[in-house]
Amino acid sequence: KVAIKGIERELICPACKELFTHPLILPCQHNVCHKCVKEILFAFEDSFADGGSESSNQSSPRIRISASSMDRIDRISRSGIKRNSLTPRSTLFPCPGCQRDIDLGERGINGLFRNFTLETIVERYRQAARAAIAIMCDFCKPPPQESTKSCMDCSASYCNECFKIHHPWGTLKAQHEYVGPTTNFRPKILMCPEHEMERVNMYCEICRRPVCHLCKLGGCHANHRVTTMSTAYKTLKEKLSKDIEYLISKESQVKAHITQLDLLLKETECNSERAKQEASQSFEKLYHVLEEKKSAALRAIETSKNIRLEKLQTQVEEYQGLLENNGLVGYAQEVLKETDPSCFVQTAKQLHVRIQKATESLKTFRPAAETTFEDFVVDTAKQEDILGDLSFHSNGLEIPEINEEQSRMYNNALISWECPGKTDSADIYVLEYHKLNRDEENVTWQKIEVCGQTRVVSDLDDDSSYAFRVRGYKGSICSPWSREVILRTPPASVFSFLFDDKCGYNNEHLQLNPRRTSVESRAGFPLLLGSERLQVGCYTTLDYIIGDTGIAKGKHFWAFRVEAYSYLVKVGVVPSNKIQKLFHSTHDVTSPRYEQDSGHDSGSEDAFFDSSQPCTLVTLGMKKFFIPTTPAAPKDPASRILPLPSCLGICLDCDRGRVGFYDAGRMKCLYECEVDCSGIMYPAFALMGGAAVHLEEAVIAKYGEYNDDI
């Protein structure tokens, strides 16, 4: 037999830290007191009404909800979910055992089984703990006698005499089940919590819980794999018995591990003390350095003070000598009393020079020393920053580096980093960022803790630059900060759309991917067959495709990538009233007649560009970006040709009637022009020959990435 007192740890509720009272089995297989479950759920409900305040946890002194559970309650309460505060009806339950949010289902507490086996073991433990305290008979006249047995059917305890009276021989009560004295009475038949009139007779292997036949026929376990209760009982008991036998057979190994752990505990204590001493010595060195610097600074100030006081005191004495009957003036007055000319001249010459200097000093009075000590102000701003970042540094923890190629800025910021050795040596990373603002002197960094090596940062201001940096932590040891990387947000909010496969879409020349985020122009047999019908000097037309969503007002931005092998691509915007003209135009944009540099006398080339085209487009191709010919454009054709950025962006400002074309990687404007926004504007693309365009996908956080906000 296993000693009852040795298993107390298994009989403690993780919520109230006391012995279980009517324990319930959660879907995660942890046990919690029935009262604790209700109190946690009530605290959970109160957190929604109180805005997730910590005061909601103070209403019950019995329950002790961990900080992590309260953080999850606060997070869910901030999500805006509303619950009924009269009864605990939340389907989410923060399990104090595994620290996870458990879904209790529609029935909530009513759908949980009571763990009668654990309840019986707890009662045995209580009886062993209070062996000296007897259970009294419930039916004896005062004074009651000590009970000798308890009836499980009557849920009462009896002495021998009372048991015979209430269970007479030959009656149905004589067949009741009785056990030794106990206060724990459980039902003889376990009923289904979903169907209260049905007893459980099967075991669901998927949900790992007993079910009744109605649960299997039409309930939530209809499609689950179930087995009979006797089979489940036999199987689980065999497995548990084998596992227990295995653990008992490994008792010597367990004891060896316990001995090793005891040594590790002592070693940890010794190492922690040694680490404390080393840390104390390091700080003592800093104290000594600061004390020396402080003493040197105070000595320098004191020396400067004495020198200045001496100079000022000398100057005071000199000016006091200018007073009548004092010092220099008194001496001069005595010299004037000399009547012998030769003696007077001999003395008066030097005295006259001194009198002249004193006269000049009165005209231009200037103190002999400064009274301020501005030169002795100690600037400790940098040192304070360094001391603020003071932590345990380790040579074995590498400095992470932000990967600028994998990081990108779009609707959100995706920041990716890696370690130089390609090994994730840190347990957790801290990502910090702040908005660059020339007016702000004190920078406030926003901090995010990340378990992986990527993070999505949202709620950033448009048309702004942000600095990012990251460092790794392994326990209390941290690495230095990485090099700061500056990324710029788009000039406007991101506009999301897909390619339209209905309006004017030419499926013979263009091919869309299933998600409608990429379009490709194929120069295949349809183009060759169509070229037979083309006249001499006329080459081919562009294949247009537009976005499936239009813009009526406001300022919006979208980005896309053009494949490097693309021969000719045009991108821009088109108003709704010119879409039909765009797709049904018979003009051949590459024929000699309409070529802008063909020499055809069709008026001003600039006027042709502005008025003849149904939409505002710029030309891309052969890894180049071509600035359109306008009066403001450079006259030299070579200066109008720029390298094609890896990612392009378009910013449409309907309110100002302007459209800009950007290098989306650096968020730098390459070209901007006026555009008529009288109608609904649509993104427009045109392809010719072998070409492909891919819309930039929005930056979306993976599920669970905002576990703290997050």
UniProtKB/TrEMBL annotation:
Limits of the Fibronectin type-III domain: 399-492
GO cellular component, one term: acrosomal vesicle
Pfam families on file: ANCHR-like_BBOX, COS, zf-B_box, zf-RING_UBOX
InterPro entries: B30.2/SPRY, B30.2/SPRY_sf, Bbox_C, ConA-like_dom_sf, COS_domain, E3_ligase_FN3/SPRY, FN3_dom, FN3_sf
SUPFAM superfamilies from the UniProt entry: B-box zinc-binding domain (SSF57845), Concanavalin A-like lectins/glucanases (SSF49899), Fibronectin type III (SSF49265), RING/U-box (SSF57850)
Domain B30.2/SPRY: 477-708
This protein's record includes keyword Cytoplasm: yes
Gene Ontology biological-process annotations: acrosome reaction; spindle organization
Annotated ranges, domain B box-type: 187-229
Annotated keywords: Coiled coil, Cytoplasm, Cytoskeleton, Ligase, Metal-binding, Microtubule, Repeat, Transferase, Ubl conjugation pathway, Zinc, Zinc-finger
Molecular function via GO: ligase activity; ubiquitin-protein transferase activity; zinc ion binding
Coiled-coil annotated residue ranges, if any: 258-285
Cell compartment(s), UniProt: Cytoplasm, Cytoskeleton
Family: Belongs to the TRIM/RBCC family.
UniProt protein name: TRI36 ligase
Provenance organism: Tyrannus savana
Phylogenetic placement of the source organism: Eukaryota, Metazoa, Chordata, Craniata, Vertebrata
Gene designation per UniProt: Trim36
